[in-house]
Amino acid sequence: SLQVRANQKTLSSPFHEIGLADISVHVEWTSLAEAAQSSGAKPIGFTDQHHFLTGIISTFFPEVKFDPSEKRALQTLLHPEMLGRNFQALALGKDFHETLSGFRFARDPVIALGL
Question: pTM, whole model, 2 decimals?
Answer without folding.
Answer: 0.80
